[in-house]
Design goal:
The complex is a heterodimer.
Chain A: E1 3-7, E2 10-14, E3 19-26, E4 30-38, E5 43-49, E6 56-58, E7 61-66, E8 71-76, E9 85-93, E10 99-101, E11 105-110
Parallel strand pairs in A: 2-11
Antiparallel strand pairs in A: 1-3, 3-8, 4-5, 4-9, 6-7, 7-8, 9-10, 9-11
Chain B: E1 5-7, E2 10-13, E3 19-24, E4 31-37, E5 43-50, E6 53-57, E7 65-68, E8 75-79, E9 88-95, E10 104-105, E11 109-113
Parallel strand pairs in B: 2-11
Antiparallel strand pairs in B: 1-3, 3-8, 4-5, 4-9, 5-6, 7-8, 9-10, 9-11
Classes of the chains: A mainly beta, B mainly beta.
Chain lengths: ~110, ~110
């Protein structure tokens, strides 16, 4: 069975701090790893990673995938209170259409 | 920006009743999904739908559940004979050109079974 494990499960930081969120996975036929941000209800797409070692960047957020060690990290620099959310990691297999999600990391950024 | 729309946002029902959750996916998307999230637990895949048929379903998606695209815009999830353990947030999602990958999620329907 596919497994996605995120750490830490929760994290409290101050504005301006840099955070690193971790996601490890076990999947039979890997196609991609995705990061989503869930603020109140709907998860919103952040990144999709398919190749090792290529960093994806969007503003203060960046992510990278290591397919050999089976993990990904999501970095957020100069955090703001608006970054407070649950960050979800999900993996997708080549053989199907489902995403398998991790438990999420609850990030709280205090002013 | 186009978005996935779900109605209702909250649904309360009695155990044993049938509910229909409704979704309007993004108009040019071809793949549609239902996921659910029980309070405090992971987001779980229920079913994917393409070309008017189910393309994949999870172990959760048993005979109690069904999906339908009754017209060109709506996508529905029907839950028959609801149980207490069906209480969850149900998310509809759609993707444009390929199964899985970059999904756009709706805001969810919070289903409470009493």
């Amino acid at each position: 069975e596919d497994k996605v494990v995120q750490s830490p499960l929760s994290l409290v930081v101050h504005e301006g701090d840099t955070v690193t969120l971790n996601c490890s996975y076990e999947v039979t036929n890997f196609r991609s790893l995705l990061w989503y941000k869930q603020e109140k209800k709907a998860p919103t797409f952040l990144f999709m990673l398919t190749s090792s070692g290529i960093e994806k960047k969007s503003g203060r957020l960046s992510s990278i995938l290591d397919k050999k060690e089976l993990f990904s990290i999501l970095n957020i620099t100069a955090t703001q209170t608006g970054d407070s959310a649950v960050y979800l990691c999900a993996v997708e297999e080549t053989s199907g259409s489902r995403l398998t999600f991790g438990e999420g990391t609850q990030l709280t950024v205090n002013p | 920006e186009p978005e996935v729309t779900q109605t209702p946002s909250h649904q309360v029902t009695q155990m044993g009743q049938e509910v229909i959750l409704r979704c309007v996916p993004i108009s040019n998307h071809l793949y549609f999904y239902w996921y659910r999230q029980i309070l405090g637990q992971k987001v779980e895949f229920l079913v994917s739908f393409y070309n008017n048929e189910i393309s994949e379903k999870s172990e959760i998606f048993d005979d109690q559940f069904s999906v339908e695209r009754p017209d060109g815009s709506n996508f529905t999830l029907k839950i028959r004979s609801t149980k207490l353990e069906d209480s969850a947030m149900y998310f509809c999602a759609s993707s444009e050109l390929q199964p899985g990958g970059k999904l756009f999620f709706g805001s969810g329907t919070q289903l409470s079974v009493l």
